[in-house]
Design goal:
By secondary structure, this protein is an alpha/beta fold. It has one domain: Alpha-Beta Barrel (TIM Barrel). 43% of the residues lie in helices and 14% in strands. α1 packs across α3 (93-111) and α3 runs parallel beside α6 (142-160). The chain is globular, with a radius of gyration of 19 Å.
Length: 342
């Protein structure tokens, strides 16, 4: 099947097996990659990782927060006299992979789809340093977060090899580009793209990647907004241009909805997509599926996006489904299946 469905990561389920079975039952024939649903404490992406830093010997709390909104996030700083090293950071992705990997392999065999790949979502090092340490994080302490992320990629790749795809999740980069005044957007996109490509460059040769551009989703509310699709196009083009050889960039996912907000229907909003320049080997995943928008409107948007991009695209929601109620997530999966069947 030429058009594929993409699941960003989180799925509201009690455990990884239930999440993967739900995904396979709803959209299985159209999936190229299958995440484990990021269930349990992982459903809120990086919240549990940052909360774990409250007991880190090299970090101390600078400003507390209860995670009720994006401006109420706890912010840490490096303790006086201490040095933050990558070896001392554990984001938990290796343990999560090792727990879910056998279940994935069992379900893949049951599905009779040997090409199905296990998808591991990883926040970028820029994002992790920013959300942990505030604006000063990427300026002075990004390297330890990169070292820790690369260590996780290397260990997971050593176990899963090319049966695993790493999805780099980049809300901070896209929101930063979107908030930059127009004339400077392209420059900011290039600078941030070099960092993303640099992370991939330090990964093992042969490791497979996808990029999830994101507007954030906390409590089913977005961190950023876009005036039109220009920030996505500029950042996607810059990442593709900077991407290192030997580490396949298999897709770029772009958000066209924003958490609870349905996608815009104004064709002018999507017009910048005509300037998207991805290699033929990199699929474009349009994250416009939303359970609260009429399926007929969604079909019209798909046709518009494909006309502007100039090729068939894969379909997805704008972000993971873990912050939705199960009924809403299931409705979004049904939309995904319907649009993949078209």
């Amino acid at each position: 099947m030429s058009r594929s469905a993409h699941l960003v990561g989180s799925i509201p389920a009690d455990n990884a097996e239930d999440a993967m079975r739900l995904a396979l039952s709803q959209v299985g024939p159209h999936l190229r990659f299958l995440p484990d649903g990021e269930t349990g404490e992982r459903y809120h992406r990086i919240l549990h990782i940052i909360e774990g830093f409250r007991d880190h010997p090299d970090l101390e709390l600078k400003k507390d927060g209860d995670w009720s909104d994006f401006d109420k996030i706890p912010v840490f700083k490096v303790r006086r006299g201490r040095e933050l090293r990558g070896a001392a950071l554990d984001f938990g992705h290796i343990a999560a992979f090792e727990e879910s990997w056998p279940t994935f392999r069992k379900l893949r065999e049951e599905a009779g789809d040997p090409e199905l790949t296990f998808q591991v979502g990883l926040p970028g090092d820029f994002d992790m340093s920013l959300f942990t340490l505030g604006p000063a994080g990427p300026l002075g302490h990004q390297r330890p977060f990169r070292e820790a992320t690369v260590r996780e990629i290397r260990e997971i790749f050593a176990q899963g090899g090319r049966e695993v795809l790493f999805q780099l999740e980049l809300p901070a980069e896209l929101v930063a580009v979107a908030r930059t005044p127009g004339p400077s957007q392209a420059l900011v996109a290039r600078l941030l793209a070099r960092g993303v490509a640099g992370l991939a460059r330090e990964a093992p040769e042969g490791a497979r990647f996808g990029v999830h551009l994101c507007l954030g989703d906390m409590n089913h509310r977005a961190l950023g907004r876009m005036a039109d699709a220009t920030p996505v196009v500029r950042l996607a083009n810059a990442i593709a241009k900077a991407w290192p050889a030997g580490r396949p960039l298999e897709f770029v996912h772009a958000p066209f909805a924003a958490a609870e907000k349905v996608p815009r229907t104004d064709p002018a909003w999507y017009a910048p997509l005509s300037s998207l320049r991805l290699p033929s080997t990199t699929r474009f995943v349009a994250g416009f599926i939303h359970e609260d928008q009429d399926l007929g409107q969604q079909r019209e948007l798909l046709a518009l996006i494909e006309r502007l991009v100039g090729r068939e695209v894969d379909v997805s929601t704008s972000c993971g489904l873990g912050r939705r109620e199960l009924s809403a997530a299931t409705a979004a999966l049904k939309h995904t299946r319907a649009l993949s069947d078209d």
